[in-house]
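lol ok so funny story. i was supposed to be doing the assay writeup but got distracted and ended up predicting the structure for this chain instead. priorities right. anyway since i did it might as well share w the group, maybe its usefull for someone
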Amino acid sequence: MRIGSGWFAAGACCALAIGCGSSSKSNGADATPPTPDAGPPVALTGHVYDNGGGTAPLAGATVSIAGATPAITTTSGADGSYTLTVGSNQTLFVRAAKSSYLAEQIGVVVGPSGASVDLAPIPMSEVTAAEAAIAGLTFDQSKGEVEVVLTTTVAEAEDFTPMISADHDPQFGCDAGGCKEQQTITDLGALIFPNTVVGDTSVSVTPPASHACTVDIPGISAYRVDAYVLTAVQFECT
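and the output, tada:
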């Protein structure tokens, strides 16, 4: 669960109770919208947390379904909780946004009984800190960010290699010492693919020999990328 330490946490991961997910198209195409012929209405619930403030709830965040027409939206309460009414039996991207934060979205497979997903937007102070730390990095507000998060039970320090299919600028990681360009994740952490072309992208992780990685939420073939929104995807590796 990715609650509360932003990009600078060694263990930053996708904030979700049900999962991370998405859908598929070529670079530059509009991201896949919600399914128009979804099943009966159900509840999509969860909490929004301040990803720069431990497990502190983030009240007053706008929580919405990306691409929904008409809009499906609500505001997180004092305890960070939210409830949205959505159609069942479809894949959706739920998004949390608030002033002074980089919005985060996570894909979720909504079953016949509904689903639950927690979100943790990134404070803009961490975005500007990453820009300051990495030479040549400037976040393009017409493009999106993809964060690949890894949790693992592997005891030894080994490198896992996340990859996405969409065009992007050099990926980077952050820890307590700051941010730097890197290609792999060792044991536990997150890799951010900045300035990813808007549309849909596939996401995968190549593990070292004798290990395997699976995405938290199966059944989603690609991930939605929207302008100046962080799409978070979590993998479990053993």
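The radius of gyration is 16 Å. Residues 211 and 238 are 6 Å apart (CA to CA).
back to the writeup now i swear
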